[in-house]
Amino acid sequence: MRKIGLILLVLLASALLMEAALRLFGYVSMSLKRAGSPPVASGNRRILCIGDCMVLGAGGRSFPEQMQDILLEQYGVNAFSVINAGKASGNSSHMLAALPEAMGKYRPDLVIIMTGRNNTWNPFREDAPDSDAPFLARHSRMYRFLKFLTHKDERIGPERGVLSARLASLETEERNVFPRFSELSAKARARLVSYYCASAQMFYNLSDYLSASAELDKAMACAKGGGYSVVREIIRMSIICRAPDKALVLLRSAAFPSSDRALEKFYYAQAYELQGDAVKADRLLREAVRLDPYNWEYHFELGRLHDWDTKKALAYYSEAKRLSPRVPHPYYAMGLLFIRTKNLHEAEAEFKQALRLDPANVNPLRRLAELNLKRKTPERFLALWKEIPELSQFPEYNGLRVSVQDGRFLRRTPKEEWVSDISEAVTMVRRAGVPVIVSSYHELNLEGMRDAAETNGAIYVDLEPVFKQRFKTRQEYTAYDNVHCNTRGYRAIAEVFAGMAEDLFGLTKSTSAASSPAVR
Fold first, then answer.
1. Cβ-count burial 235-260 (b if 16+ within 10 Å, e if not)
2. Residues paired with 459 in a beta bridge
3. What is the CATH number of domain 45-125+414-519?
4. Rounded distance, CA 187 to CA 243, Å?
5. In Å, what is the CA distance from 95 to each residue of 48, 127, 333, 419, 506?
6. pLDDT one-digit tens code per residue, 411-469
7. Model pTM score
8. Sequence spans of domains, the chain
9. Which of 71, 89, 330, 344 could hold 320 in an S-S bridge, CB 3.0 to 4.6 Å?
10. Contact by Cβ (8 Å): 392, 398
11. Do residues 42 and 81 touch, judged by C-beta distance below 8 A?
């Protein structure tokens, strides 16, 4: 027995030493990575914008994108890189959880934070366990390391090196091919355009707007003299990458066949919507519907454009559902409308149908969790897998079940959450020696946010006076959803922050910057 006990003691000590070694290795690796690895962003000065959908750019071209445009025009290509780390539907805990990695990855010279509003409806914290994984999987580095070594699908060692070499080879081939693209066949040029469009979307998703724009420019150059389908692909990708100016240039020069006139109007509408011209977008969408009344997407887009008018929006979404009952988007949009009008039973039905059609869709899933928490019926969410069995396969649902069951989201009030998260975030950035700006929303100052920011060394910006001074009516800067900014509204925010960045870096004041906001 003593020998067995001794063996167990040695094994336990070995396990503890290995765990400690792995944690030390992780700490040293991250420190070396932050100190020596090249950042993804390429500008000499890097500005990290982090927060929720107002940073991401719901409703128009985001303020980080337009801030990049302003600084590019004023100081040239390599002077600044503005990184968009916004998260759709994210609350302050999502910002705080993403901040350490973003700081290490980009090593910013300035951080801009806009978050907190979603705490009032999204109670789930990013720092709460988000899956039903075993205790060791959540807390033991050794357990995760052993799982990694035994996972057959991981690409490590020589195989990973082969993939990296292949990628480098492809990039070299592209650099050699592009200067002589005019010598290629029409088919080869079309493939090259598809490559550039895919690259543009990849860079856009990585918040590298300069590279995304450059890829779209290459695609446009290769498309000269190309077929209609090639041009149409670039138009579509320009809209996805929120580059309406490029889309409009191509639309004005493209020859759409008569069979695609409705699609042409639809693309025009999307481009003008991104520019913030809702009147033109509405007129063109109506023309698209007149030319092709059976396309669900045209009706759906009209619903989004008129989301502020519940009656109209419901009519458009209902028609989109009728035309394409297997598409989840109209159901989810209607669920949001029903929540706004306090019709929670109808909202639940719409979200459930959206999930039946697409069980992997996180948005209706989170809304159902929120809805049942508000009604104090968490058991309905916990039993949702019985109605939609496919949900049990997805970690997101299992993670939400754990959070709902354990009640971790009920720890603090929304105000306490955003005050605590902002305080911790500002402290983290200031310890790195980086200035940080905490911003209000364009129509909302969250209680306690200014004190949390300034007490910990941040600059607080109040955007409300800027918007009241610049715009005569709310419609001038409000997006179709009646909540977020449109492109013009985001431009105003971009000009404020571009001017503040110039001041902080001791540069000449940009002629395009807005008047100073209310700061203290």
1. bbbbbbbbbbebbbbbbeebebeeeb
2. 437
3. 3.40.50.1110
4. 26
5. 12, 11, 25, 13, 28
6. 578 889 999 999 999 999 999 999 999 999 999 999 999 999 999 999 999 999 999 99
7. 0.69
8. 45-125+414-519
9. 330
10. yes
11. yes
